[in-house]
Amino acid sequence: MEERCNDSNSxxxxxxxxxxxxxxxxxxxxxxxALENADVIVGYSTYLxxxxxxxxxxxxxxxxxxxxxxxxxxxVELAEAGRCVAVVSGGDPGIYAMAGLVIExxxxxxxxxxxxxxxxxxxxxxxxxxxxxxxxxxFAAISLSDLLTPWEKIELRLEAAASADFVIALYNPKSKRxxxxxxxxxxxxxxxxxxxxxxxxxxxATRENETVTLTTLGEMLSADIGMQSTVIIGNSTxxxxxxxxxxxxxxxxxxxx
Amino acid sequence: MEERCNDSNSxxxxxxxxxxxxxxxxxxxxxxxALENADVIVGYSTYLxxxxxxxxxxxxxxxxxxxxxxxxxxxVELAEAGRCVAVVSGGDPGIYAMAGLVIExxxxxxxxxxxxxxxxxxxxxxxxxxxxxxxxxxFAAISLSDLLTPWEKIELRLEAAASADFVIALYNPKSKRxxxxxxxxxxxxxxxxxxxxxxxxxxxATRENETVTLTTLGEMLSADIGMQSTVIIGNSTxxxxxxxxxxxxxxxxxxxx
Lengths: 257, 257
Prior knowledge:
Two copies of one chain form a homodimer. Chain A is an alpha/beta fold.
């Protein structure tokens, strides 16, 4: 057993590490340290390609997009065998990402390893930063992928979030297979909000290929939206100024700005 | 004018920097670089006290909790005068924090400065990491503070989020003055979820005084909840295993774990 990845009870610790939206600048020191400490780094090849310098000298277990279960099981097995293992998760492992699958697999094996989640900058944080200040008040995050959630439940959530004036962040708005969900989602929200409601679309946030589009609920379906996009739809108070979206938290009602 | 904080159009840039939940380990490299680059650092004293080594040799404009407007106005004025200014925001400036106020103040002055938001680990990311994997599916963030939002609107959002089976993260659950809101919020959610629904309460996430409490919707009002707490209430599928909360994303319906 390698002591440097054992917890205070001498249990082997598996780290699930958020690498943020891409590249080193938006990784935390704790995330870098967890990867540096590991002997084995497990992850989806696309995320690993963004941090080549952190992989030098490590054993790397890299698999493609649809092989999350195999990848996470392998990581748990290696940690059980006493190896120092870090699972790389793009964004924040805790938000629509790898934390859940790792813990579910450990649970299914009744594994006694220690598991530590190292948080990262999620898409919702990175995209909001590119748009200015869209999330200053209550917001809902909704994934439009019906691969793992029934579409009827997604529609129910869109309806609820739109009717209660939440700012709405749409994850997985579109894929090659799913091209109509974003239009259906827009139509549900449109029942509750005006055509002029500001909308921001951020693709590849913080990466070299980053694009930011400011549009409106009325016009958004004409914009380029892809697999890597996050769409943030303002609430009834969100406004645009210069290239920023602002959802006022309410200070203007209480304070004199 | 100091060129190192000018943007490509030679406009002075004001940085709004997320310092995360507390201390250096969970700050990003980009956040550290923005503070190192600044001559003037503006922030709430409690957040500045957590990063003393980043303040050495800088002009520091530090004020108390209720003086956000004055603080942000001073930061905008200093940037307009050509100074290199960074506004420190605990957590992520884009989530219930300083990004909005800075941009609103710039808007009110029709300021032409450039503003860059440097995202950070928000309370929702940090608290989720301490609880395991509660946010693997759609979630809503709701602040229980009625200082800036009418309580009726908060109730409407609680009702909507609870009825549509969102995982719910409650910000600002309690203060000295507001002790009853958390009970009211619990009662609204209780109409839609069972008493056994897992609940996690994280206070001072990642700090020395961090506490994590796992409880249930039925029992949560007996737990210690304070100003620095974030409360995460599971949805109908959230379960507890060891000291983890898991909201399965749905892999078990599609994959064989």
